[in-house]
Amino acid sequence: MNQxxxxxxxxxxxxxxxxxLVEFSLVMSLLLVPIVLGMAGFAxxxxxxxxxxxxxxxxxxxxAANRGAxxxxxxxxxxxxxxxxYKVAAMESATPTLTVTLTISxxxxxxxxxxTSATSxxxxxxxxxxxxxxxxxxxHTVQSIFPSFGSFAIxxxxxxxxx
Length: 163
Fold this sequence. Notes:
Blueprint: H1 2-65, H2 74-89, E1 98-105, E2 111-116, E3 133-143, E4 151-161
Helix pairs in contact: 1-2
């Protein structure tokens, strides 16, 4: 008679453990899904930020390296370089809408051109001289991978010394 009571208690505990395991898995899935989705959203943001930062840095270096070139269009060169590099790095199929600002300073640190967000400024080419500084910044509004989160703006800046 004692054996029946003991085995029924064991069976009850086993059922309780199974129920606890199911409840735990349901609760953990509800907690982990938002965390994983948040990590995916942050990874997308970080990827876009790094792509824009790299594109801005590369365009400033390209402008500094092209000083003294004939028919140099600093604004056009920077805008085109950033747009193309960001499009490739961010794996965007459409041409991204970027706000690009260019500032050129002479060796004394006086701002000689800009800040401008024009797409063409051939007259400013004369200010890209040895010892000067080029400051490039860009801003881009990116749509979140989750529509309910909306969009967010990313921006990057780079400064290059003209040698």
